Amino acid sequence: MSQHRRPIVVRRKKAASHHGSHGSWKIAYADFMTAMMAFFLVMWLLAGTSKAEFEQISEYFRTPLKVALAGGDRNSASNSAIPGGGDDVMHTDGERSRITIEQNSGMAADMSALSRLKARLEALMQEDPALRDLRSQMRLDLTPEGLRIQLVDSQRRPMFEVGSARVAPYMHRILTAIAPLLNELPNKLTLSGHTDDLPFAAGLRGYSNWELSADRANASRRELVAGGLEPEKLLRVIGMADTMNMPGEEDSALNRRISILVLNSRAQKMMEQENMAPGTPAVIDSDQPPASIDALTRDGSSTTNAAGSEQVAAQ
């Protein structure tokens, strides 16, 4: 045996690689052609779409979640080209449901803001030592029209001089104190003067309780403005005479009072639309169709500006 062994060489052949699949490019090309066909189809459809149809389509895609939750057919008008809610495809039930939800939400927010203002006024009367003794002559309550603030008279502490519109110091103190708080909300106000049912000696032909109640309302308005109330917030100042006595207090001094009403949104709209031209559509509730002022008047929604009476003790 030879002492020099020959080296053993092992050769391993690499497996031949197959260069790609012959069909994959066809799939990619088909996807590309499909996308291009869809693109040109959309462009062709848009070219023949009117502006009104554009708005309807954009409305549908802008608020799909709101439509689904509220049950309405779209976010704004009723005559949608793409119905989307309610049992009736003509948008009746679905949109009415959506409007009811939004309206209730707005009323709740309005009431919450007025309730907070009521709490602020009560806190002001309690914390200010100069006003604490007058708290019994301020009455606060929430009504269907808004927050009503009543400043009532008393036998021992009248708000005005007898038979006069001259403001007493107590009344001046209250009005100037609450004026800044009334600016905190955007809601407008009405201010009405009330008297008792005792007539003037000269009767209704001369200066009567109608004039007295209106003069007292205007005197209170001047005090509020002097205390910082923005003048444009006042929507109405009226005299009510003795036409609206307090329940169960027909012969009481409490009927001699000033009533400040912080209007809610619905009541404010009704008052602002009273002077519209006859036949002009007036929208009070968003879930009701527009009504004319004539129709509202027939339904008794117009407010009567009445005024009431108080006697100056003759002799």
TrEMBL record:
Bilayer topology: Single-pass membrane protein
Comp. bias intervals (Polar residues): 299-315
GO cellular component, one term: plasma membrane
Limits of the OmpA-like domain: 147-266
Record region (Disordered): 278-315
Keywords: Cell membrane, Membrane, Transmembrane, Transmembrane helix
Cellular localization per UniProt: Cell membrane
Family: Belongs to the MotB family.
Name under which the protein is recorded: Chemotaxis protein MotB
Species assigned in the record: Kushneria avicenniae
